[in-house]
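Task: fold both queries, return tokens.
Query 1:
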Amino acid sequence: MWFWLKENHAIVSALSSLAMLGVWMLYLHLFYSSYRHQIRPKILITRGGGDTVAARCIVTNMSSETIFVQAVFLRLSYPDREQIYSLSETDRAGFSPSDRRSELVQGPLRSGDFLDLGSFEDLLSSVIETGDARQELAAAHRLSVLAVGSYTWHDRVVAAERSFRLKRNKAEEITLIPTQVFARQITSRAERRRVAEMMEQEAGLR
């Protein structure tokens, strides 16, 4: 064995170097994966307290760092059109939660913090200037919630969207059926640009 190792010293040395390189590559991959997970923002949008439009709309920061929520948009989809509303620019008279961030639909959320924005029906009632919120919901087939913010780790827009199909149950109540298990994180450059344009339009920059 000793003679074999002595005769094949160069091969053994090369294999040892490759094995060591593989170990370091594995450590580097684990470190990079942990780093990406740490800097990746994640926003949850959920319904709480039932599955009808009387359920609460909850926005939660599941990132490792603070997210500053800048705006929340509602989009009603009809068979022939879409209508987008901004909650952040709405005077929500009568809605006075203990947490002012929920009333203003703005503010910093630390990791694990959430905003209770009120019921889905009340949210629509506050933004629909003419007509009845229930009538609008009855005519629409989908409701989407888009939460937009900025993240501690970088300057670009972070956002998440969750959509619900609108259906009536046996009691003729309008229910919210999620189209996906979790909120969809907006990560593509094109979608982030579209969200940034919505923010600019809301701020009167367009």
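Query 1 returned. Query 2:
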Amino acid sequence: MKMNRSYNTFTSLSLIALSLASAIVSSALAAEPARRTPHSWPGTRASQLVFFAVLEGLYRDGVTNSDVDLIIPPSTNGAPRFDPEHFVYACPLCHPAFEAFRLYRHRDRIFGLKAPMDTFGPGLDDNIRSQLRSPNPESRRKAIETLISRWVAQRLELMRLTPEERADITREMEQGRKQGMGALKNGLTGLQLRKNCPICDGSFGACKLK
């Protein structure tokens, strides 16, 4: 009798443990998609495209630090500033662009070269450089939009996407632009006077170009 009671107790405990284990595994599996769902720009293809396009474009064109500082001006402590006249806070296209500018601005010299070198190209053309130095913020934003559009278009060309892939990334860019423009409209940038975003317009515009 004692053996039967012990056996029944063991069986009951085993079933309870198995049920708990199954519940834990089920909860973990159910939570897995949520953990993989991107909640910030590094998890989206469109944002990554903007990041790599801008960083690559900066190196390819050989943009000088003085020109970069006109887009992400240094703050009082010397760190690059997320300028609300050029970027939109909470925009999934502006943040990767800013991060690429910031990363490039802190670049080191290329290792192993006799001559000091930290970039590749000859620098921006005089027209763009002049626009970036304009006291008119609209002119500065137009110059930034031109750069972003060219760099994203160059990156897309290198990616050799299929028509279906191009359509998918264009839709993602459009969604990112809508989110950024929504933040701009709601005044999250602190500047409600402007109605355009050079990063959003340049990125989405490049995707539509064929």
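Both queries returned. Flag for query 2: The radius of gyration is 25 Å.
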